[in-house]
User: Fold these one by one.
Assistant:
Number 1:
Amino acid sequence: MTFPGTLDLSNEALRYELDLEKGAALRTFGLPDGAEWTSEDRPGREFAVFACGQRIDGQSAGLVVLGVDEQKDESPLSGSHSVTVKLRHDPTGLEIDSHTIVYRGTPVAEKWITVRNTVDEPVTIDRLDSFHLSLPLDEWQVLAYKSDWGAEFAPIVTPLRDAFIAETRQGRSSKDWHPWLTLLGSRGDLLTICPMWSGNWVLRCEPEEDGSFAVSGGLHDWEFSKVLEPGQQADSIRVVLTLGSGGDLNTVSIPLARVGRTHWYPRNELSRSLPIEWNHWWSYEDKIIDERAFLDNVEVAARLGMDICTLDAGWFGPADGQSEWYDYRGDWQSVNESRFPGGIRVLSDAVHGKGMKFGLWCEIEAVGKLARLANAHPSYVARRDGESLGYLCFGNPQVREWAFGTLDRLIREYRCDWIKLDFNLDPRAGCSCTDHGHGAGDGLFEHYYGYYAVLDQIRAKHPEVLLENCASGGLRIDLGMMRHAHTTFLSDTDWPEHGLQVFWGATTFLAPEVCLHWSYSEWLGQHPHQKFKPNDPALLPHQFDFYTRIAMLGGFGFSQKLPELPVWMLERIGYHIEDYHLVVRRFILEADLYRLTAQPEREGKGDRWAAFQYRMPEGNEHLLFVFRLSGAESERNIRLRDLNSDSLYELTWLSAEKVHTIRGAELLERGLLFAELAEEDSALLYIRELPAASRL
């Protein structure tokens, strides 16, 4: 068999070349006019497999190239170039397929491996690194995000001088760290790495003998092992590598969003409509929500022009008003008749009768300590060393069948248009049972592949239903999940500076339309920063507009006692809903997003101004959100991006009687001065390029 000595996957936005002379090595990786990301002296080893007491990588002795499969999709807007290098490691008899996809017109590459056992006895895999890159010598910085409940997307910036590891061992992808790491070179070169996985992952930056660094990772090897029987194979998780320049994260996030929209994100008619949501949770929880309260909110939501009403936790379980929802997760066949005497279909029919969609919360993976499900089906429960982990093992085919049947029934019987899928616990290393269809060391690995399969099955059976990903808010946000769910909830908490911080962080790898968050909510419970009180006499309209517009940056929702809001506040909500429907929505769905300021941070830290520019693909229309946070300097020049310097632009302030015409060069170089915004104030501008005749 003959095959080329090199494989060139380059495109107009990326240099990417593989050397197959001795195994598989990355020869060239960089932007067309940018720096080289591979070391001249140490070729990238492409991947690593740890098995049979050996490390096997793309340069290991005894590795033989068996062949190459190559596919090119020449579609102008959604093309890609895919290559699979087929290898055999003679000392172990393992076959390894190294997969790479480069997306047309972007600096985005997706990598993973498949390992196949071709010998006559079982082989144990202890580690699967989806990629390995040897960096050239430079003064590198690492950018990453720490994460916890209500504290998502906390930025870390540190020089790379010693080993640096970003990881989660919690079993949820964005608990402890978000699955995102960026290397920044001394000349502004950027490499962003995103594991596409919802469980445990790791990214390692490790020093080499010559002072340089190697970067590798993918699935976390902590407590992981997988036994491959003869003829069996396993895929590693996928990892996305994206290059940027100028020290500007927009150069990375924009191509990632474009590829997500074109290749990764599931879409349906409802998700493409970006529905505005009301959800009962924070203002009612499961303490005071009932049929009457829900229906009263439905009446107001319909008058305001909202699109969907979602019933969150508290609808299921024993027929009393005192049960704790957490204890009865899994008993989805029951309805709390004390709170909802007419059943759930009464609520759904009322919502549909008002021309809106109906949403329902479900934690399909979890099993509460008092749930009848655990006693009826003890083999469904994920256990480690015999102890229940509080969730159902989706590595078990019986659980997958049950979960699909349960969700299918909820959707059909309650006429659900939206399912909010939550997950409120940390599986950590996951299930170690050996009678579920997985081994002792790969329970969590198989759980997530099983969960993805159920989501895909539901979307196939109910293509019109929108699936929302949630995990204690934002503790399972990753590009793996976003191949199976339509939107992801960014965080349970939503006070203003936090809302801006998490949206800024999430959009470094997600498109804005898949980022769902609510405006500043009135909480029934206590939180040191959730202080919104709608009847506070000191609360001014411009502050309420500020709170609401933060949620309008992406997927848009409310969690309020709508019938109890002041009349003026309801009028402002109606106004913002109209703005969102008529103006904002199409920009969020189609435009490139530029973060024009640094990241705001909680506790008064970070940038105290926030500005976001949405640029439509044709380049002639833009939308600009500007926010002045508490503690900000009194004025700021906001410089726009990617305009035609010779053109005139008409700027229209929404909600203000104000129109200006400014040349593109001035907006690019000097910027637009905001000197009249109060603290906790905002501006929303529609910007259009004027026709050539008007420039004279």
Note: The two ends are 65 Å apart (CA to CA).
Number 2:
Amino acid sequence: MLKRDIEFLYEIGTLKNTERSWQQFMGSGCATVPEHSFRVVFLALLIARGEKFKDEEKILKMSLVHDLSETRTGDTNYLTAVYTKRDDKQAVHDIFLGTSFADLNKDILHEYEERKTLAAKIVKDADNLDVDIELKEMEERGSIIAKKMEPSRKLIRTQKLYTKTAKKIWDEIQKADPASWHLKANKWVKVKDAGR
């Protein structure tokens, strides 16, 4: 089994080379799949805490594996999904086959795909919210297409987000300044006499 576990680790390492397919429309500078997944983990934890969901271990595991099939299927976007038939179930089955992580497919990923539990809804909300954060970052860097996507993203807020906490986060993302975190931390701004 250890041999398959090592192969699995190499396989998930290839995600760093897997770009999100919406780069086709957005141009360069889009997050890779693991960059997206990393922020999804923290968004999901934030939503879980807002919803008073206690099983953070489940949230962490589900967030980590939510896009794992993309090592074999690649990423699809709202347009390519119309024309592409992906077998995510088979891909994930094969990814986990013979590894120490097979339970993540049978239990955690299956639950996520069904979207019936609060945990699954929290992680899907996080998956969606990461797109909105990235769009705000791109808009900050001058992307015109990011601004043009606002109407469709408003539909996500009203029709696709499951939890109250996610909707509150969405509203805050729209008002937030992506640069404020580092500008407020800048010692040259905070301390008048710094550098003299």
Note: The chain has one domain: 2-180.
Number 3:
Amino acid sequence: MKIRYALSALALSVVATFPAMAENDSSLQKIITAAKHEAPITVYASTGKIVKQAKAFSKKYGLKAVGVKAKAPQILEIVSREAQAHNIKTDVAFLSDAPAGIEQLLSKGYVESWLPNDMTGKIPKQYQDPLTVVMAPNVWAYNTAQYDTCPITNIWQLTEPKWHGKIAMQDPLGKPSYTDWFNQMATHYDQAIAQAYQQEFGHPLKTDESSATAAFVKALAENVPLLTHSDSDAAQAIGAPDVKDSFVGLISTAKFRKNKDGMKLGLCHGLKPFIGWNYPSLGLIAKGTHSPNTAKLFIHYMLTEEGIKPQAVDGKMSTNNTFSLPSNEASGIEKYRSEIMSYHTSTADSDWQSRQDWQDLWSLSYQQ
């Protein structure tokens, strides 16, 4: 497999060169005052929680914001078409496909990234431009009714015969975030993947693949995971109380809230080299919005503990590092935050360019 790691100098600078919207005189109070004279805004996101968040924002500030849930590809299409038609109806978008957002929206000038002045010291620089608002953890999980602790301690164990056909996850061919995960591992964490192999098997990895990550992805696919069409289906295969087969799998932390309804999902903390990975959602403001101050205020609101709380209870982590997840978050991921693989938006262009390569490797290796 030949992954296209080489990026041009221009591509390397894509993320770094998006100009944040100017805010020289835009203190929060000035933004609030100006927003009072603007039209209502429409906000898109891939989570249904955006409806609740928009209502709470409207109540807090005496403004009008309407939240709309849509999948990332739909949001991309809507924002692109409105920009091309010069008919802006979507004011703010929270996009859970960072590579596509950078490639198809930011680089074309359809949207802008804006970082509030009072957030510059609270959000790590790697998440500032373009602005990442929230990170969604995808983690390895097991059934607590079948095991006292997670039955795997190293991701390479998932490539062994014991787990043949016993791994549940969404199909990478229909889930771009998974191929982005592969590419992020290869680009930034390949040494950790190789070290995990040596820790598990007692000798260095020898492979004809282009990276330790590629060798892992190939071996994982060859072990024929149960591929699902949704996160909920994967969670059901892993954590159903009456499940007869022993599955481990990869799911979002949001699915752990089903434990209150009888599911038996447990977090595989301590797994080497990572217990999962964080996937970013960008906060974007449409160029040409008729309500720029209201749009900015909504971005600011979503960067606060109050604003992000409806998503935080599902384990989604704000990039504002001044507060933690709420105590009623179901997975317990807050205690193991340091064990999650971080996403590097700086190489999102490489993720975008390499998606087909990783899909090809997966499809060629996955043979039932």
Note: The two ends are 21 Å apart (CA to CA).
